[in-house]
Structures are given as structure tokens and as C-alpha cells.
Amino acid sequence: MSSDAIDPGVLRRNAHSPSFFALQRASSGRRDLVDFCIPCNPYFPTPGMFSQLAGAMEQILKYYPSDADTIAGELCDTLGHNPQTVVMGNGSTELITWIDHLLVRESLATPIPTFGRWTDQPLETGKRVDMFQLHEMRGFELDVDAFVHFIRMRGARAAVVCNPNNPDGGYVPRREVVRLLDLLIDLDLVVVDESFLDFVDAEPHTSVADEARIRPNVIVLKSLGKNFGLHGVRFGYMVANPALARTVRAALPKWNLNSFAEVVVFLLREHAAEYRESLRLLARDRLLMSQQLAGLPGLKVFPSQGNFVMVKLPDGKDGVALRDHLMGRHGVFVRECGNKLGSSSQFVRLVVRPEKDVQRLLIGLGSFLYGTASEEPPDNVVSPGHGWGEATAPGGEAGREAGATAANHFAGAPPHREPVPREDFRTAI
Ligand SMILES: Cc1ncc(COP(=O)(O)O)c(C=O)c1O
Question: I want to staple 94 with a disulfide (CB 3.0 to 4.6 A). Which of 56, 89, 250, 406 is the partner?
């Protein structure tokens, strides 16, 4: 595979990652890029659901959707929310934009590194952004008391935390988030961005949406693109007390959601079991992938509860060079974190993907870090798509052993750890 298979300029154009479409156009039409960059659930929707969506394509494209209240009403029925407290947006980014315009008055504090819109959006509208640096030494863990102290020192009037955080996947236990909300009761606004929360398996009860409903100054935000594996649909929602929800809802156009979003939302109810299964498969893959990455000498792996794992490259190795190497030689797309405030190019975010894709990643990583392995990816690898129903045994020995092969090129077998037992606790989607 030649290194000029992709125009590398497309990777450097702006602060955000290029879209998958832009990459395909820039890669001389190659169709087998494996996307470890965009954090999308690979196990949902199921192939059956994709067929249903394909069957509805003509109507989706020809007809107007219902208004946003109708679609949000169905989402609330499915998820068990009170519709007065919910607002749906065309991607959660639309809601972030309006939350900033309407509710962030002068300043906002957020831990960094984090999702770029939470720093860039308020900066673009002239607000002061107080950035609380998370430290590698502490595994990028958020210390609630230190963050509150920082907010008091800076006099910030609004605060945002992503839980789990992007790019490291760090999770703050629910009781700590509630304590944070209590400590910040006097602020204009506190947002808890729970976009990756469904992937958490550290504890059974994770969301603070029930707190947001009854507090004066709290919004819980959730993208639906990540957990439902449908970034292109552009849908997300927020939960807040009815007055706060009304303020944001009033700013949005009546038809801000498209017909794709409507059809998907009305499909979800029938597919709760498959969704739960997709989360189980993802947690299994996260454990296995983290172990395999930890088996690569010199690579530091941060514990994650998201659908991605952040790694630190050994000193002297640069994430931009790694990204270009993986893209050009292995058809693997990763997120180097150099353009994230509070991070550097030594950090790379890797989306959790099915085992056969991870093999290709590990081979590419190995050839970049140690220059020892074959440059050719295994020929069983394809797809930015899903791996639903694939042969790898869930957490079983067969899966684990197959999974060990690429890592073994470089480091011997990964340490054997028993999978964390996990109850199938989710009752709603
Ligand atoms: C923490 C977090 N919140 C929100 C978003 C925006 O998601 P979307 O606009 O696709 O719903 C992202 C995107 O990566 C994110 O990481």
C-alpha cells in the first residue's frame, strides 16, 4: 500500500477532524478506511435496522418530518423522560450553540482537555473561558473540590463537565457529580454533558438527568449520534427544569430535526434489547482493546468508560506522524490530540472497535513504534461499518486469544485479567 494513497493535506485543514467523506475523497477512492477517530457505536443500529432505514429512504427524502415536539415526545416515551423537560436538537452541537447564546452570560469554566465546542463556542461569542487543566499524573481524573475552588478563584458564572470526558474517557461517579451540582448551586448554569454515558459500566445508576429536572441551574446534555451509532442523522437532546427547557426550545426552528431523525426515533422502541446488547459488546471490546494496547511497550493507556481509549506515545514519538503513517500505510484513521487545548500530539484517541479492526490498528502502531512488523494489514479487515453478530466469542477465550495475535508481534501476550462482571441493568434505552 503506497504512502501517497491519501492526500495528507486533508488531515491538516482545521481544528476538527476531517469528515469520513472528505477522507474518502482524498484517498483516491479507497473504500476500506477503518475509522478509529469518530467515536461511534459500531454495533448499533443492527443490519436489520439499516435495512429498515434503507427501505424507508424514498419517504425520508421526499417528505417533511413532523415538528420537533412530536419527535421529542416519542423520544421521551421511549426513554422515560417528561417532555416538558426535554429539548431535541439537530445534533447536541446545536444545543451547545444555543445554550451559549442564551444562558452563558460572561464566563464559563471547564476542565481541559475536553470536547472542543465547549471551549471554542463561548470564546467565539466573546465569553471568558476558564480552563481547568486535568493532569496526566492523576490520570486526567477530575477532582471535584479542586474544580470548585478554581471556579471560586476565577469567579466563573457557568461550568461544564463532560462525563465521561472526551478525549480520555474518565468517569466521575454519580454521587460526585451530584456533590458538584450542590456546591455550584449559586452559578447561572452548570452543564453535565452525558454524551458518552451509556457506555459506562462502572456503576448501574449513572445519569443526573433526574437532578437536572428539579434544579434551577442544571442542564444535562446528550448527543444521540455516539451511542446510537448515527452521527450523520444529527440528533441529541437536553434535560432541564421546564422553564430552562422552554427558553432553549423557543429559540429553535420548528422543523430543526430531519425525517431521518424521526424515523430512527420511532424505530428505537422495538430495538431496546439489541441496543443493550450493543453496549455489552462495546464494553467487552473496550476491555480487550485496552489490554492489547497496554501490551505495546512504551504506550501508556488511560482507563476509559467511553467508547474510545486515549493513549500516550513514548517520548520522542509524535501523534501527527503516527496519524499520517496509519492513514497512508494502513488505511487507519486515528485522532491525534495536538489541537485539543490542554493536550499535546503525544496523546492519541482511539475509538473502540471490533477485534478484527483492532488487529489492523495494532499492526500499524507496531510498525510505527518499533518498525518491526509487516506493513501489510491482515486481509480479513474491512469496514468503517459494524461488526454485529461476528464470530468472536463475547469475552471468551477464543476471542481473547485471537485478539492477542497482533499485540504478540511486539510484546508477548497481554496480561490476563478477568472481565469485570456486569449486570444487564439498563431498563430504558
Ligand atoms: C462530549 C461531547 N458532547 C457533544 C458532542 C457533539 O455531538 P453531536 O453534535 O454530534 O450530537 C461531542 C462530539 O464529539 C462530544 O464529544
Answer: 89
Q: Which helix (H) or strand (E) holds 158?
A: strand 158-162
Beta strands per DSSP E along 174-227: 189-193, 218-223
- Give how far Cα 379 sits from Cα of 37, 293, 360, 425, Å: 21, 21, 9, 38
Q: In this model, does residue 374 exceed pLDDT 60?
A: no
Q: Dump pLDDT digits (tens) for 112-135.
A: 999 999 999 999 999 999 999 999
| Nearest protein Cα to ligand 1, atom 14 | 115
Q: Which residue of 193, 220, 223, 264 sits with most ligand 1 atoms within 8 Å of its CB, as the best mutation to test the pocket?
A: 223
CA of residue 2 to ligand 1 center, whole Å = 34
Kindly state the DSSP code that residue 317 receives in the 8-state scheme.
-
Under a CB-based contact definition with an 8 Å cutoff, are residues 83 and 69 in contact? Answer: yes
Structural domains in the chain, sorted by start: 3-45+272-411 (3.90.1150.10), 64-257 (3.40.640.10)
- Read off the pLDDT of residues 228-262 as tens digits, 9 standing for 90 and up: 999 999 999 999 999 999 999 999 999 999 999 99
Higher pLDDT, 420 or 308: 308
- The three cell numbers of residue 383 are 469496514
Half-sphere exposure of 310 (CA within 13 A, CB side): 27
39-85 pLDDT per residue, tens: 999 999 999 999 999 999 999 999 999 999 999 999 999 999 999 99
CA of 252 to the centre of ligand 1 (A): 18
Task: Read off φ and ψ for residue 83, nearest 5 degrees.
Answer: -60, -25
Please give the distance, rounded to the nearest whole angstrom, from the Cα atom of residue 224 to the centre of ligand 1. Answer: 9
Point out the ligand 1 atom lying closest to the alpha carbon of residue 93.
9
Alpha carbon of 407 to ligand 1 centroid (Å): 31
Beta carbons of 104 and 128 less than 8 angstroms apart:
no
Grid cell digits, residue 297:
511497550
How does the average pLDDT of the chain come out, rounded? 87
C-alpha to C-alpha distance for 134 and 113, rounded to whole angstroms:
7
Nearest protein Cα to ligand 1, atom 12? 115
Q: Which residues of 119-129 are buried (b: 16+ CB within 10 A; e: fewer)?
A: bbbbeeeebeb
Compute how many other C-beta atoms are within 10 angstroms of the C-beta atom of residue 418.
Answer: 7
